[in-house]
Design goal:
The complex is a heterodimer of chains A (about 500) and B (about 475). By secondary structure, chain A is an alpha/beta fold. In chain A, about 40% of the residues lie in helices and about 10% in strands. Chain A has an eleven-stranded mixed beta sheet, with helices on both faces. By secondary structure, chain B is of the alpha+beta class. Chain B has three domains: about 290 residues, no CATH class; about 110 residues, no CATH class; about 60 residues, Orthogonal Bundle (Arc Repressor Mutant, subunit A). Classes of the chains: A alpha/beta (about 500), B alpha+beta (about 475).
Chain lengths: ~500, ~475
Amino acid sequence: MAFQGALEIHRQIQEGKITAVSVLKQSLQAIAQQDLDIGAFLSVHGETALAEAAAVDAKVSAGETLPLLAGVPIAIKDNINVTGMPTTCASNILTGYISPYNATVIEKIKTAGLPIVGKTNLDEFAMGSSTENSALKVTRNPWNHHCVPGGSSGGSAAAVAGAMVPLSLGSDTGGSVRQPASLCGLVGMKPTYGLVSRYGLVAFGSSLDQISPFAGDVADAAALLQLIAGFDPLDSTTLKTETPDYLTTLEQLPSNLRIGVIQELNGEGMQPEVAENFAQMIELCQKQLGASIQTISMSGIQPAIAAYYIVATAEASSNLARFDGVRYGQRKKTTGDVHAMYRKTRAEGFGPEVTRRIMLGTFCLSSGYYDAYYGKAQRARALLRKQFQEAYGQVDLLICPTSPTTAFKIGEKASDPLSMYLSDIATIPVNLAGIPAISIPSGFDKSGLPMGLQILGPRLSENKIFQVARAIEQVTGYHHLLPPALAQTVAQ
Amino acid sequence: MTAVLSQTQYETVVGLEVHVQLKTASKLFCACANHFGDKPNQNTCPVCLALPGVLPVLNEQALNFAVRLGLALNCQIASRSKFDRKQYFYPDLPKAYQISQFDQPVCENGYLMLSNGKKVRILRAHMEEDAGKLVHSGADGLAGSDYSLVDLNRAGTPLVEIVSLPDISSGEEAQEYMTQIRNIVRYLDVCDGNLEEGSMRCDANVSIRPVGQIELGVKTEVKNMNSFKAVRRAVESEVERQIQLVESGQRVVQESRLWNDATGTTITMRSKEEAHDYRYFPEPDLRPLTLDPAWVESIRKELPQLPAQRLEKLTKTFGLSEYDAGILVEFKELGDFFEATAAICQNYKAITNWLMGDITAALKTEKWTLDQTKLTPQALAELINLVDATTISNAIAKKLLPELISAGGSPEALVKEKGMAQVSDEAAIRAMIQPILDANPQQLTDYRAGKDKLFGFFVGQVMKASQGAVNPEMLNQILKAMLAGP
């Protein structure tokens, strides 16, 4: 049996129709059956998850009202800390590291009673767009095992797309949740910067990172974001906003909806089917949602990739300096001094992409280069922010294809980092501007691989984004579709 | 031929960088206790251990202390400030960057006035976190040690670094500047101000230049001064060394030098510094600070009396000497006690003498601080009034002091209880003297035969018998008459 939506599972657990333990066992069984092929998980924690599920069932038996999503199994990207579990960041440098503390989102998830099934694969330290940069494992796209699931949160995406869990958490620094959601036929929601606490998320680009949910449909994604959002005294960059409620108004569609199409993200460099699909989506918004459509031109989009790879790598070079072999993780022995130990530990502990980004970021922050690179990138970022603000003066939301292509073959772009970087053109501006954006399934290419539509809104417009995404989803019916091979297995 | 001694006169140019450790309850960016002397790594948490995924949260009390300090140093308090990352690898620095302030410090453009009327300008006072501590085995430093242990109890302790302009022109001025800062931080109650224990640290940038030259000479950075005297000596020694170098035709090299208190000289440290690029950039995990001017004003209003204000009050209002006033300013506890006593007793000189004499001596013996004793300003005032009214002698007053210190109480009551009131009645004094004369016929005979020195013997005997309670002037007078014979 395949998973229904997370909210539906939760409802049935609350009503006593199924138990959380049975749901969890089903999840563990699916992992056992499929994950040898898919490779979504780096570690599975059945025992602790069973105890968490049993605790939920006990509450149901005692007649208690469960917190939202209680009993729904969840998978966590392996750069988010969970007490007692490894945090590998898919890197050799953290081999053997067990986290002694919970991220704030994990505290919330545990309090609500979502059993944590396991930790999922990622590009090393979340740096990449295909999960091929994992030092530990290959993750395959459940829709086509020869293809990548996208990245960097490829494991979390594959875990949900492969029907092993109904929900998962990823982290999105430049598209690391929205792009794999698009490539795996899922909903992925990157919230406004500061809406979700980063405490316990291993930092990549501190001013860009946001923990973000994956789900099979918009309502489930909204429910999970609602659960993890909110001000956190442990994260000074969180916003002091009220705990949101997206579900109550989810089915309402804003009237007189104005949707903008970003000119710079429509056409050039796109797979023809993606372009066609996007044209259909524009038509859908016009005809089915009654939206007015206008084209918006933003000159800040083009420099965004360059600015992003300066800001993100500069911050990363600093954030990853703590992996020095002194206090935890792998320390490489040398006969030299402490600096020789640092060099060997870091040279052998980090993979090539992480090394490349640390070096790039270190260079950008170097004395004499700071203004030319980091300073200029910050100016480009400020310009982009301003242009988004201006755009939202004219339209309510912006749309574009999430990814210029569908899932590519494993190994196809691995040796060409620049072409890999360019595949994030549509997602990166969102992180630079700190605004929210969702990716929802929008159709399939000729070979049956999913495509995604990205909907962008102004700061803290999650509610409106979810409403429009939900309305589109109801028209297309692309949510909760299973990869054909998996659907067959399930049917048998 | 011997070298001709140069006639060049050199000027000393010194700028000081002073690190002040703030005595907040918790560390700068986490809730760990800001406390020393505990087991290694006891006061640590995921944040100050820099585990993957943690974030800093600014300690508001530390910001408050830094603003207080900035105001006391006559600084402008920034309305907008921010934190930056200063990056370098070292095992005592867990994040491999120190959260500090680069281009927008909390406090800027202050000054301190020295006693010679000179103004030492303060460029900035910024906040930053301290590093941990390394314990080496088999060597003094990391290099050459068999192994080194890391203790991160101190990692994340809040510091304020006060950077002066090179306005200081002697070792003595350097020492006074440091002493003033120490007094200020103690008056503000933001730091222990203890150089010996490292709650205050100081680096001196020292250079020389021929008198009249405007351009600054090459400076060296002298570290490791563990006392106020060492600050003066280190500057003087380094200036001497630089003059000798220049006089002998050599150059001063820009480097860090370590002060050795035992030898009284500075030596070169490993000169790894020159290649450092700290790659400062704004700390993305902390929001920029906005300091509300009204909040800053409220802190200014709540500032306690500062050392300079007390010095002026003690010399001008109470007429104390510069020296006495200086000591009462330096030892804040004594100064506080003085002012409290002076509010109820006008004999300021006596208060000063008691505080700086017998009371200080007693505290030293018992290794107590004033607030650990039972002595109150009321008691001291009463004691002084009793002496001034000749109710008791100074000697009796000194005898009462230990009890007032250890057990407290009122001197008047004690005097009554113990019958220590001074005897000033002539008949009573005669009645005390007579038995002494009777008991010592030989001494009496000798005295009358011209051995004047024995007068002291008789005084001593009477005092002993009366436990010091006799009015000394009257005793002298009456004893002399009685010894002379009927």
